[in-house]
Structures are given as structure tokens and as C-alpha cells.
Amino acid sequence: MNKFLHCLLAIAALSPGAGLSAASAGQLSVHDISHIVPSAETETSGAQATTQTMTVGYCLEPSISMGTGKGTRIGGALQLNAATVAMFAGNKITAVLVANGSTKSTTATSAPIEVFCTKTLDGTPIAKATGQMDYTNTKKYNTYEFASPITIEEGQPLYIGFIAEQQEADEYPLTADGYPGHDAINEPGGFYGLTDDYGDFGWSVGPASQYGYPCVKVIIEGESMPTDMCRLSAIGVPYSTDPEQPFTAEIEITNTATNEITSVGISYRIADGEPQTATADLAQPIGYGVSAVVSFPVTYPAEGNNVKFEATVSTVNGRPNGAPETMTSASTTFLSLSPENGFQRNMVVEEATGTWCGWCPRGIVGMEKMKELHSDGTFIPIAVHGNYSATQRDPMTSSSYTSLINNVGGGFPASLINRNKGYYGIVDPDFDNFKAAYADIVNRPAVAKVEIDSIERKSRTTDIYAKVTFGISEPNATYRLAYVITEDEVGPYNQSNYYSYLSQNMPLEGWQDKEPYVSTIYNDVARAISSYNGTANSIPASVTAGEPVTHRGSVSSTAVKNYKNAHYIALLINTTTGYIENAVLYTPSDPSSITDIEADADPDAPVRYYNLQGVEVADPVYGHIYIRRQGSSATKIRF
Q1: What span, in angstroms and rounded, lies between the C-alpha atoms of 173 and 7?
Q2: Which of 139, 408, 472, 537 has the smallest number of CB atoms closer than 10 Å to its CB?
Q3: CB-side exposure of 382: number of CA atoms within 13 Å?
Q4: What pLDDT sits at residue 605?
């Protein structure tokens, strides 16, 4: 595993402004520099009246700096992709801007740096330049000029970046913007150069999902710079709407040309409706690389799920948008549902956590407090444990749930809420975050109600009998069911605790009074999921309002230690969006709750056993609930 990723797992929970002591040599450490006042960024102007100069980059303001340890190399890069080089073809790259890192060292004030331009990240540089990164001017961009400008050719993407030498443990040469939500397709700027455990240097995009983009920009000069070009960088509508109420559509635009944008024209269409237009005058003109959000009211009077909303930025400053078509359009989907046709929507939290993760007690507290407040089944917690490394492993990991770890970017602790990452993001499992999301979720009607009628345990698996009732008919339904087993009272195992008075000494519901390693009993431990994306054909391609759909799913139960502490969850997954539309948590009744066991009226009649769905069972399993029929008598029993 890469050293950078080692630390990424360990410190992903740091909130903005939280400090972190220097890591030992060879590990990545992050130095928050958001409190440091930035110096003015390097600016350039055209050398001649006919020549224009632009600073092109995808990063936001510098926020955090990081390093990989004494004697290692670290770098950052961006790509001018095919669409971008098409806009700038014929112009020239003259220099690279790199934001200075920071240091806690009293002796290191600079670091050797090399900037480059290549056709492939690992390829031979077309051009390169060397210099010194200036730690005394943290956040300020230094300019590194190429000896000979590079002509941009249409059809030839380019990578521009830097590699710095880290000489001391307390140096942090790479500065990033800290924003994890970049558009990596249209703005590919999240390339990190890292030194691994074996001393080898390589490139990765993984850290961008946690730390944002490295602060690298490129200076382009020429006489044929783009004008009146605008990229549609984001599109947003509520993921659920009421067909009787108007809602707001939001379009984020980004200027990709040399001249300022004062107005844009938007064309949009909902489902198969007629195209419509909206025009927006910006309150403030925006220059190159600057974004603005325009919004307008929208109505859609019909009901349906996965309703398509597509939009195009058609005009800029009253003239046709000159940007490539792939950059000007985007689409999303939403649910349009009347409250009277919907059902109670439950909140599902799938949290990535680990015994080795010192910040993960925050998630333990957040989940437990939510369960205390919402014990009615509207809050469904699933704690997905993951490993730190091959040698530091969590004893409660579930190999069937690794997709969740990947979907939160490898950071711990982190969570997804109803898998709606587009709306809620990757959520820090803090109680206040959960509480805010819960208030929003439960007030949005769900398209379907999910129920579990019963479960049937076998030697290595458990069958779960689910029922789904939809509020609206859908001739092209795209749903699947997934099944999860969780277990309470697991352990005890030692939980790493950075909140301890002997570590960071940060307040957290009494964890600050505990030792750095705390013997802990764990709840909501994910033992297995049947399939992360749901079981194919578990929901038919066409569903009718009010007509229940039944399904028997199967999930491994070999990891369960005590079935008395097990919970069973059914997730209804929308395969178009990946969202969990609704879910249910089912806890089998205690044996003492079984009543009405009657004496048999005909002791000589053959005995037959049926599960709670009425299916005859040839070999009943010990501990399960059945209908026992003998002659004319039928009783519910625990076998």
C-alpha cells in the first residue's frame, strides 16, 4: 500500500482547522494551512497587443499542504484533455505555477522542484524546468518558466505538473485545495505523485477524493485564445419533488474563455417534454476559471422515478457558446411523487470504520446517539469495518462490503447516507451531520415500502423473505434488492482512540477521558451483504402501484457469532442512480413472544411444517419459527 494512502486512512476524519503532529519518516502527514493569509498569486499579462495570456488550472484556493517523509519525492499534476487542447490549439505553454508548500522545520526554508510537460505522466518530458519551492511564502504561487514554449496541438492531451524533493520530516511540499468534489472528467487535475513503501515513485488519482486537487496551474500565451466559451460544470435538482409544486433547477457554469461572461442562455428539457429556455444575467461578470450558479423555477406535473432533466448552456453573452459540445451539456434524474402516494422514507447509514482508526470513535458516538433518538426503525445503521493494512487488520471486516470502502474514497471514518453521494456527499459520521440529514430524508416520501416478513436460517446462509409495495406504477422499473446482516454486542476488541487525554485530548462524549486504546463492544457490525448493487431480477422490470412484489433473498451468515444479536436489513436499490430508495430493519421476535401454542387435537396425524410464507419445509432448522400442522390443528412454534 502507498504511504500516502496509509495516512489517508488514518487522518481522513480531521475537521478543517484541526492540527496534526508530524508523522514519522516515510508516512504522509497533512499540515492545515487554511489559517495562513495567502500572498498574491502570480499574474501575467499579454506581452503584445495581439498576444493574450491566460492562467489555466482546475484547483481552488490552496488549503492544506502535505508530505511523504524525509528523503522522498512528492508531486502534483493536471491534464489538458482533448477538449481543452482543442480550445487552445496553436497557442503555447510558457510556464507552470505551483503553490508553495509549508514547513514546521526551523532549518528547511525551500525544496528542490522540477516542473514538466509530458504526453503521458510516466513519459519523457517534452519540456522541464527546475527551481526552489519557497516555504517562506506559503500559499503563494511561484512561476517556473520553460526555456522553450510548447505549442499545443489539437488531439494531443498534455500533462503539466511538478515533483518536489522532501528533505526533512517536517516539510510539506505539496499544497492542495482540500475540495473532494471536482469534476475529474472535464477538469482532470487530481494527479498525485507519491513515493511508496519500497521507495518507488508513481502517480495516483485516489487521494483527490479526500484532499482535492494539487495547486498547479499553467500559463498559456497566443493570438487565438478562446472567447465566449462556457462549461456547464454542474447541474442540480432536488432528488425528490412534488408534482404539484414548482422546484428550483441550478446550473453551475465556468468561464473557459479570455473574455468575461455577463449572461448565459440555458435550454433544458424534462423527460420527453418540449425544450424550454431560460436566460440569466449574472450579478457579477466572471473571468476565466471562475464559476457562478444560475437558477430558475421548473415544474413537472407528472409522477415518475428516474425522470430525466437535461440542460445545455446554449449562449454566452448573447452569442453561441463556443465550447465543445461535450462540455456544455449535462443531465440528471429525479423522483416526482405526490406525498399521498408515497411511503415513510427511512435513513440508511453505511459507515466505513475500523478498530485501528483513532478518529472512528466519532462514528460510534454518532450512530449510537441516532439510535437512541430514532428507535422506530426510521434510522438504519450499518457499521462496515475495514482493514488499515496487511498487518493492521480489523477483526470485524466483511469482504462482501469492500465496495462501500471504495465508494467513500478510502477515508475513515466516513459514511454514505442512502448511497446518495450526489446530494449528501461523503458524510463525516458526526451526530450533528446525521441529525441534519435525517430531518431532510424522513420528510421526503419514498416511492416504495420495504418489509421483511420472516427469515429462515440455514447452515451457512440465511434466507430473507421480503415484500416491496410501490406507490406508483412503473413500466420500466430499475430496482434491485440487497440483503444485509448486522450484529450487536460484538467483541470486545481494542479501539484506537485519538480523542484520549493521552493523545489529542479532544472532547467526545467521554472518549477524551479514556486510554488511547479502549476495550470496546461493537454494535451494528456488518457481517455480510448479499450483493452491494443488489440481486438481479429481484424486482420485476414492470411494477404496479399497490401490488406487492415478494422475493426470497439469501445472504451469508457464517460470520454471525450470536443470532440473538442479529438484525436483518433489506435495501431497495435504484440501479439507475445507485441510491437506496428505501429500506427496512428486521429483528426476529424473542422466543418468549410466541403465543397461542395449542395442544394437538389428533396426536396420530402426520406432522407438516411450513414457513411463514406458507411454503412447506422438509427439514426445519432449530431455532426458527414455523407453522406446525397436524390434522386439523395449526400452530405457530419455534422449532
Answers
A1: 16
A2: 537
A3: 33
A4: 75
H or E stretch at 518: strand 517-522
Residue whose C-alpha is closest to residue 249's, from 284, 303, 293: 293
Range 457-467 average pLDDT = 94
Please tell me the predicted confidence (pLDDT) of residue 615: 63
> Quick one: pLDDT band at residue 613, thresholds 50, 70, 90?
low
The per-residue pLDDT for range 108-120, each reduced to its tens digit, is 899 999 999 999 9
Distance CA 636, CA 594 (A): 7
Indicate the angle between helix axes 361-373 and 431-441, nearest 10 degrees.
40
Residue by residue, DSSP assigns 410-421 as T-SSEEEETT-H
User: What is the residue whose three cell numbers read 429556455?
Assistant: 277
Long-range (24+ apart) CB contacts under 8 A made by 273-278 are 273/300, 277/314
Judge whether residue 606 has pLDDT over 90. Answer: no
| Contact predicate 626/620, CB 8 Å | yes
Residue showing cell 414492470: 542
Please, which pLDDT band fits residue 386 given cuts at 50, 70 and 90? very high
Percent of the chain having pLDDT more than 70? 87
H or E, element range at 118 = strand 110-118
Give pLDDT, residue 32: 36
Express each pLDDT in 312-325 by its tens digit. 999 999 999 998 88
Q: How many angstroms separate the CA atoms of 111 and 114, rounded?
A: 10
As a whole number of angstroms, the distance between CA 550 and CA 137 comes to 64
Could you give the CA distance from residue 394 to residue 493 in angstroms, rounded to a whole number?
A: 9
Exposed (0-12), middle (13-18) or buried (19+): which is 589, by Cβ within 10 Å? exposed
Task: Report strand pairing: 633-638 vs 625-630.
Answer: antiparallel
366 residue type, one letter: G
Distance between CA atoms of 223 and 523, rounded to whole angstroms? Answer: 64
DSSP 279-343: EEEEEEEE-TT-EEEEEEEE---S-EEEEEEEEEEEEETTEE--S-HHHHEEEEEEEE--GGG-B
pLDDT of residue 210: 80
**544-547 contact pairs (CB < 8 A, 24+):** 544/470, 544/473, 545/341, 545/470, 545/471, 545/472, 545/473, 546/469, 546/470, 546/471, 547/469, 547/470
For the chain, percent helix, then strand, then coil, each to nearest 5? 10, 45, 45
Question: Which three-class secondary structure state does DSSP give residue 514?
Answer: coil
The C-alpha cell that represents 53 in the structure block: 495570456
**CA 628 to each of CA 57, 98, 579, 611, 637: distance values in angstroms, whole numbers, following the listed order:** 71, 75, 40, 9, 7
- Residue that the C-alpha cell 452569442 belongs to: 319
The x, y and z cell numbers of residue 425, run together, are: 456527499
